[in-house]
């Protein structure tokens, strides 16, 4: 059986049996060992090169302070990419697989049917206690439906390095802490159902 066919079946099964139920039940989910060590390493090395070559710029704040960088509120450095840039083949594969996963969710996302996505945001927190205060990705209904985050942190120890993504699910009495470990793919609703924060990072994240 061709690899592409196996991949299609696996992604469809994961979407329908895991991603869709989790999003409806608790509003988020994650998949570990998504790309595997070899391909994940290729993505990591490309992102490291962007960081090393100074291609990332300070993340900006939306809202009243739109376009303003305030490091105490948001400490990441970012770059928007499409995946078709030179040397980004592994990133393009990652984006293609994420696109397929979301596509297989199809009409099962309640009132949503995802037809397109934005460019991918490469983000790096340089350590020194940098994080991102509690916020909502899409507070004003700008069309964003699902936030997908792929983590690249090898040998990450959250007790030592911090950097946990804490989700505050709307109307729930609990919080959800997601450690940013290598080859983990996280999905959550982008709207007001999932305020979240990136806790201070004490290593490059």
TrEMBL record:
GO cellular component, one term: cytoplasm
Compartments it resides in: Nucleus
Keywords, ordered alphabetically: Dioxygenase, Iron, Metal-binding, Nucleus, Oxidoreductase, Vitamin C
Signal sequence segment: none
Needed co-factor(s): L-ascorbate
PROSITE patterns linked to this entry: FE2OG_OXY (PS51471)
The keyword Glycoprotein is assigned to this record: no
Single GO term (MF): hypoxia-inducible factor-proline dioxygenase activity
Domain Fe2OG dioxygenase: from-to ranges: 116-205
Catalytic activity: L-prolyl-[hypoxia-inducible factor alpha subunit] + 2-oxoglutarate + O2 = trans-4-hydroxy-L-prolyl-[hypoxia-inducible factor alpha subunit] + succinate + CO2
Top-level division of the source organism's lineage: Eukaryota
EC number: 1.14.11.29
InterPro entries (UniProt xref): HIF_prolyl_hydroxylases (IPR051559), Oxoglu/Fe-dep_dioxygenase_dom (IPR005123), Pro_4_hyd_alph (IPR006620), Pro_4_hyd_alph_FE2OG_OXY (IPR044862)
Official protein name in the record: hypoxia-inducible factor-proline dioxygenase
Record lineage: Eukaryota, Metazoa, Chordata, Craniata, Vertebrata
């Amino acid at each position: 059986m061709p690899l592409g066919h196996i991949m299609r079946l696996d992604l469809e099964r994961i979407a329908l049996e895991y991603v869709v139920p989790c999003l409806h039940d608790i509003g988020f989910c994650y998949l570990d060992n998504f790309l595997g060590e070899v391909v994940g390493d290729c993505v990591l090395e490309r992102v490291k090169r962007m960081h090393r070559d100074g291609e990332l710029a300070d993340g900006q704040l939306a809202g009243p302070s739109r376009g303003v960088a305030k490091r105490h509120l948001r400490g990441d450095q970012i770059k928007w990419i499409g995946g078709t840039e030179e040397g980004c083949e592994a990133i393009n594969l990652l984006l293609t697989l994420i696109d397929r996963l979301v596509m297989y969710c199809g009409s099962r996302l309640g009132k949503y049917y995802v037809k397109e996505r934005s460019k991918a945001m490469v983000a790096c927190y340089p350590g020194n206690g940098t994080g991102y205060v509690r916020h909502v990705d899409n507070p004003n209904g700008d069309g964003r439906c699902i936030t997908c985050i792929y983590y690249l942190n090898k040998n990450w120890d959250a007790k030592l390095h911090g950097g946990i993504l804490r989700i505050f699910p709307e109307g729930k009495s609990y919080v959800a802490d997601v450690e940013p470990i290598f080859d983990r793919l996280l999905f959550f609703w982008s709207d007001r159902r999932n305020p979240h924060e990136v806790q201070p990072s004490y290593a490059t994240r």
